[in-house]
């Protein structure tokens, strides 16, 4: 339990995210086949595998650099809309991390808030549009509140994960208003959103690796 | 020269588009950023950066994209390049192929960046003018359609609420107007404005929207209108469920006077009411004359009061079948028109109560100017909501005052029906209204006898005059002669004797007049239902719907949790047998922890036993839990939606494994539900593997007649001779005891028929148990048998219902 995290911990986070994506690749693809073009699992898996390979070859020295490398690799390897969305998220995180050697809880909250802002800027998604926003936003809000209330980072991330899971569950009932799922209109209701599912894995990876 | 960049998911597509453009403008400079490689579809922001750099010679770059991630990646690429280059790049929304051709030609001519982009965007014009005879409208992106209102009462509360809900969801600036009356356009998102259209049956309504989703939004509204705004059909088939037994005469015979002074409206809620007339006073709560304490304070009072009322409505009706009735009220609480005016009045210096009352009164007055009496009555909804909010705001507790005796009124709002005290209100007589109205449904659930459509003359009944009414036949009389009053008292006595007799004998077995015992069981969906079943004398639980344990949660219930709940249900039934139906869900009821692929038609998809077999882990756990409980108490297990013998064999094999894990359970019986015609037709083939069958008449009817019960345009009556023949086949061929657990089992008229067809267990909602037992006791099979034969040969369900008039099958009271 450390309340600051360095490059190594963040690297572990990215690897854990890649592992979770690999493990849930079929689920993501299945969810996406219900309401999208069935490529979310495959695309993210391709992107995160490339990230793991790039980072293994040469691990950057500082958090900001690690996040930037991750983002740039994603934008050129994912292919689908999750490429620019996750890419933007990591690049915005990198900008906030700057040259810092380590990040504390409040830094992490700011970093993830920047990721959320990046997703909004890129995807123009709002609450209730049935997108990754609906899982990421409650996670970021929960993290900010827990950190502000002085909770240890581990507990704060666990809380963020629960918030993300609730947000993810809430997407089932929503009608998609963004992306290809929006072509389905009402018929998109009743299905869990693949983007909300994968971003919940990102939060789960953080809770596992950063606490 | 302005450079061009093509961003596409597909490298092949981008190359082909460039070839096409180059034929028109060989000199243009075009770079490609498309696909992740030769064959992998996708877009790559870093490749776009490279293409931008390559395409720029200082004169700027125009980017054309296909869709989705192409746009997102291009936007991201802009973030990744330096400010100098970014200032020269323009992302162009033109269609890829047409836009690229136009842009290439323009760029090759030496035009500037903005002109290239403009030409590209207009690249679609040629095709548009070729294909659409009319000129392109200036508000392109707008859409319009006309629909005809087919609902019997026009666009009244519930259909209007449906329209508004849909319009808000679609968020496309939808507007509507009544073409027939030439009304102005009003926002479709405001219930109060929509209601002012005065849209009656047969009126034509124009619908329009603007913006990118306009066409889809208008189409959606057209579809909703075609479904009659999802208004449920007249719920005659539900009346038996509510306790009535005689079909209501649909033709309104208003004020049909007979010699005795007895007139006839429509029966809306069964029972006899006798008592003094009272009228409700429509006095709104007194509003104290207190000056405003400032805009924000007063506005917060409004918000708090509205939230409190919303909570109150939610609390009373959450989860009940009647919840939808209050949709109109909930929408009013949210109505932009109403709240906007309240806000305005507060900003003008009024205190919250005055502002709310004033705004509500103004909107209610708009309803009052409408021609149609039914729609005019909707102003009552506004008054009711307004009074409720004012009470909350002023801290006046309690509902509107209620009188003693027979309430006489023009109509009854749901809120009023909900607050009537059945102890004091002995009956309701309405000048207007209908048996399918929300108020009537609530009166039935509250057990208050009600007659509707009695005619406006009843509104002049003097206060305190004696009124008698029969909510079954629709008969009523005002200040009747003693002979008539006595006749109504006799009816009341007979009815109460019958109900009392049913109640006192509820615990005894139901045996026909010729000595055949029919088990009357209860359908149970919770522990509370199980307690109610025991209280109403059910012989057993004929159907325990285990879904309540599985839905709306993030993880499947553990074996231990299931055991605890099944045991609790068994204990609530005091040792009587419980029939646990294994999980019966399909693609329409998603389980978060066991997501299923989308299906085009979930009702013909992987559901019931099919789904359990597809998720063996979940199924095995449930079977182990059932087998464990069966060691301690009498338990039956039942598989839903069986269609083939192979499914039953597979399920039994899993059950055997579960028993291996749980230990042998002596009394465990195994059955299947017959809901699919295939299973009914081959019921004998299942005999070796089962101990009983239970016919689910609701689904069997739907699957047999290919008619959904909720579809107003179709008749899906379980008394259809085709369904009866299938039940008869099961009764003669199954070789094991036959139960019925659909709605038909609670239909007292159908009980003799089902018994004659070989059914020996009827499983019904707990409160229906006593009267179904009484119905069984009245059967003489020597009469019912030939009648059942005859019913199976009739033309349709209506003919069967006519045949089943009381007296034809019963031995008499």
The number of helical runs of chain B is 33
CATH architecture level-2 label of chain A: Alpha Horseshoe
End-to-end separation of chain A in angstroms reads 6 Å
Shape of chain B: globular
Shape of chain A: globular
* Most extensive interface between two protein chains, with residue counts: A-B, 37 and 29 residues
Q: Give the termini separation of chain B.
A: 100 Å
Largest sheet data of chain B: 8 strands, mixed
Low-confidence stretches of chain A: none
CATH superfamily placement of the largest domain in chain B: Phosphoenolpyruvate-binding domains
Strand arrangement, largest sheet of chain A? 1-2
Within the CATH hierarchy, at the fold level, what is the topology of the largest domain in chain B? Answer: TIM Barrel
- Uncertain runs of chain B with pLDDT below 50, 5 residues or more? 133-140, 234-258, 809-813
Helix proportion range of chain B:
40-55%
State the name of the first-level CATH class of chain A: Mainly Alpha
Structural commentary:
The complex is a heterodimer of chains A (211) and B (813). By secondary structure, chain A is an all-alpha fold. Chain A has a single domain, classed as DhaL domain (Serine Threonine Protein Phosphatase 5, Tetratricopeptide repeat, Alpha Horseshoe). Chain A has 9 helices and 2 strands. In chain A, strands 1-2 form a two-stranded antiparallel ribbon. In chain A, helix 1 (7-23) runs parallel beside helix 4 (63-77), helix 7 runs parallel beside helix 9 (194-209) and helix 8 (153-170) packs antiparallel against helix 9. Chain A is globular. The model of chain A has no long low-confidence stretch (mean pLDDT 91). Chain B has 813 residues and is an alpha/beta fold. Chain B folds into 5 domains: 3-131, Phosphotransferase system, mannose-type IIA component (Rossmann fold, 3-Layer(aba) Sandwich); 143-230, HPr-like (Histidine-containing Protein, Chain: A, 2-Layer Sandwich), CATH 3.30.1340; 239-280 and 402-503, 3-Layer(bba) Sandwich (Glucose Oxidase, domain 1), CATH 3.50.30.10; 295-394, PtsI, HPr-binding domain (Enzyme I, Chain A, domain 2), CATH 1.10.274.10; 518-803, TIM Barrel. In chain B, the strands form 4 sheets. Chain B has an 8-stranded mixed β-sheet with strand order 9-16-15-11-12-13-14-10. In chain B, strands 18-19-20-21-22-23-24-25 form an 8-stranded parallel beta barrel, surrounded by 6 helices. In chain B, a hairpin with a 5-residue loop joins strand 17 (510-511) and strand 18 (517-524). The N and C termini of chain B lie far apart (100 Å). The interface between A and B is medium-sized, with 37 and 29 residues.
